[in-house]
Amino acid sequence: MNAGKERAFPKDSPDISVRIGPLELRSPFMPASGTFGYGREYRGLVDYRALGAIVVKGLSLEPCPGNPPPRTVETPCGMLNAVGLQNPGVDYFLRNHLPWLRDLEIPVIVNVWGKTIQEYAALARRLHDSGVAALELNVSCPNVKAGGVHFGTDPRALRQVVRAAAEQTDLPLIPKLPPLLHETAGMVQAAAEAGATAITLVNSVPAMKVDVARRRPALAAVTGGLSGPAIHAIAVRLVWQAARASPIPIIAAGGVATAEDAIEFFIVGASAVQIGTSIFTSPRIFGDLRERLLKYLLESNFSSLTQVVGSLVEKPEA
Ligand SMILES: Cc1cc2nc3c(=O)[nH]c(=O)nc-3n(C[C@H](O)[C@H](O)[C@H](O)COP(=O)(O)O)c2cc1C
């Protein structure tokens, strides 16, 4: 593939730009937090112009060392990770990563996490006016002991987190929810009521793997988050459910490896799609997805991606 080179599409090629609140993205594809570092790690491998936005690894107020190794292990059709939200802290990011990212002229979505509502508010205050495009509020990490997932499973706590952040910034707020199998509708409605611009669905699925020879957990943290193609069908169902529960825009994540996987997400109601685990095996996936999505739209006579979003036909075939 031609990393760094823009592919030529005819002038009348379908429109794949998307709008999420005030965010205007030239492409619906973006990396999922934690799988693309702070962007420059993929220099030379990725055609950045195929990205609609860059979502960076989760940031906290202070640096965080994460969990001890081993922190990742492969599973059939996916991987388990318990990185534990390792990051250099928001101030380091602002000084050392953001200037480079801003030069790309791609919207930067900053994923943040805190142990308390006040920490989310302080992060929002710190990032307001920094030049980032939006904040993705990670309220769903399965790999930390405190905070994180609690805010993503209790609608009251979620409302409080979103409102506390909104008091500090008018940046778009995008809570990232866990793959809840039962309360999705209530959580999505809570996010919308609290003033979120969009939601991201889903974070990785809590899971565990055992090293049979050693009779020990494969991960030092014992449990971790399952990601990759193994979780795609779970995520499709949750995005479909969320889209029926609320008109809030959805950024879908979970197991996208092919354009067909992404198109499934659009059909059930996602406006944009994040790609995580597949980047590790196919760093050039973004260019391929863009090309294949355009081909699909052309062949299906759609002039714009928005015509596909939420176009699921639920009636049985006549
Ligand atoms: C190694 C690794 C690190 C991750 N770190 C974060 C993180 O810092 N914040 C976050 O919200 N999600 C994080 N995630 C979850 C992904 O952003 C994504 O929601 C999940 O992996 C599902 O997408 P995928 O199947 O395409 O990987 C991480 C996932 C992986 C595999």
Structure overview:
The protein has helices at 90-103, 117-127, 155-166, 184-193, 232-245, 259-268, 277-281, 285-299, and strands at residues 18-20, 23-25, 29-31, 54-59, 72-75, 78-81, 108-112, 134-138, 173-177, 199-201, 205-208, 210-211, 216-217, 223-227, 250-253, 272-275. It is α/β, with parallel strands linked by helices and 318 residues long. It has a single domain, classed as Aldolase class I (TIM Barrel), CATH 3.20.20. The strands form four sheets. An eight-stranded parallel beta sheet has the order 3-16-15-10-9-8-7-4. It has a four-stranded antiparallel beta sheet with strand order 5-6-14-11, with no helix packed on it. A two-stranded antiparallel ribbon has the order 1-2. Strand 1 and strand 2 (23-25) form a beta hairpin. Helix 2 (117-127) packs parallel to helix 3 and helix 5 (232-245) packs parallel to helix 6 (259-268). The longest helix has 15 residues, at 285-299. Residues 32-35, 57-58, 81, 83, 85, 111, 138, 141, 176, 203-204, 227-228, 231, 253-256, 275-278 line the site of flavin mononucleotide.
